[in-house]
Amino acid sequence: MQDEKAAIFEQYRGTLEGIAYRMLGTLDEARDVVQDTYLKFDEVVLDRLQSPRAWLITVCSRLALNQLTSARARREIYVGEWLPEPFPQTVGSDRDPVDRAELDETLSVALLMVLEKLTPAERAAFLLHDVFDLSFAEVGKVLQKTSAGCRKLASRARRRVRSDRPRFRSSPTEHRLLLEGFFDAAREGDLHRFSTLLADEVELYSDGGGKVSALPKMLRGAEDVAAFLVAVFGQYRRRGTPVSAASHWLNGSPGLLILEDGAPATAITLEVEEGRIHRIFAVRNPDKLEIFSRAPHTTNGPS
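-> structure tokens emitted (303 positions)
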């Protein structure tokens, strides 16, 4: 029976981690929620469950909702901009994301930032129905609300998401080319090249968590963003710090891990629209980069 339970849980582990991460925006907290879900699952009598999947999703979602309340309280006192923890996906696995025809927008930093503006119930209703295909009756069991109430929650969330979503999707190839151009322009101090890459009202978000240097708030405008990035890489050169970039699939799209003297320093993802970079998300908080230190990274991107 225990082996059967373990097999069932492993079948849905990816779904549960996906729900918890999109709810919380942090990997460690998401995995804690999934582990707590497993411990509760271990205590139930399997034969009494009509649908193990529904039970697991319900319990995981409720645990994530509870965790989100305390997480939001911590973010209110967070130093500087808060960005979601990078979600790396392994290249070369059976579910190699590089082979996907489209970007996974449901994991994007841009979407997670929009979800932060929703109420916990709106966030859960949108994710469970629109992303994970639960019926509103099933969502109602999670949120302990009526189907009609959950439909309204998801509708409000959907309007907010649509208003912030890029009008034109980019391709993974376009993303990679812009990332390579972005890194090369910053490293070479090429302001002219930046003018061909950045949208006029580009936004740069930098998350240092008060532990490393980072912008205290969002920086907007192509000239200011380009000048800032060129200045940062100029400091690397003056200090003699070796800098390279490793390609990673991050949050559903191509991203870069910037290495300072071989150590993970910044995880970068972009929001791209109409062939230009509209938002740059730079995670520098070392606590959020620990996952890259726990596993080897291959510098197979621009260097």
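The CA atoms of residues 20 and 30 lie 5 Å apart.
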